[in-house]
Amino acid sequence: METATVEKDLLRLPERIAKRLRGRRIEIAETKEGILLKTAISPIAEARGFLKGKRFTTKKYIEMKMTEKELES
Question: How far apart are CA 13 and CA 46, in angstroms?
Fold first, then answer.
C-alpha cells in the first residue's frame, strides 16, 4: 500500500497516483473508513448524450419554440 504525506497544507501523493490525477479536479470526502479521493465529473460531461436516441433534434426544438411564440401572440 502506498502512502501520502501532508506537509504545510499540501498533500503529497505517490507519483503513480499523482500522474493519473494530473490536470483533473478531485472531490474529497470524509467517510467512516477514512478520506476518499475521487475524480470530479463535470456537469457538462455527465449530461453529454442524455438526449441520444430520444429523437429530439434542433429542428424539432426550433419548431416547438416557433409554436410557443405563435401561441403567445
Answer: 27
pTM exceeding the 0.70 threshold for the entire prediction: no
- Quickly count: other Cβ atoms within 10 Å of residue 20's Cβ: 10
Strands (E), 1-73: 5-7, 10-12, 26-30, 35-39
pLDDT digits (tens, 9 = 90+) for 26-56: 888 999 999 888 888 877 877 777 777 777 7
Q: What HEC string does the chain produce? A: CCCCEEECCEEECCHHHHHHHCCCCEEEEECCCCEEEEECCCHHHHHCCCCCCCCCCHHHHHHHHHHHHHHHC
Let me know: does 21 contact 13? Beta carbons within 8 Å. Answer: yes
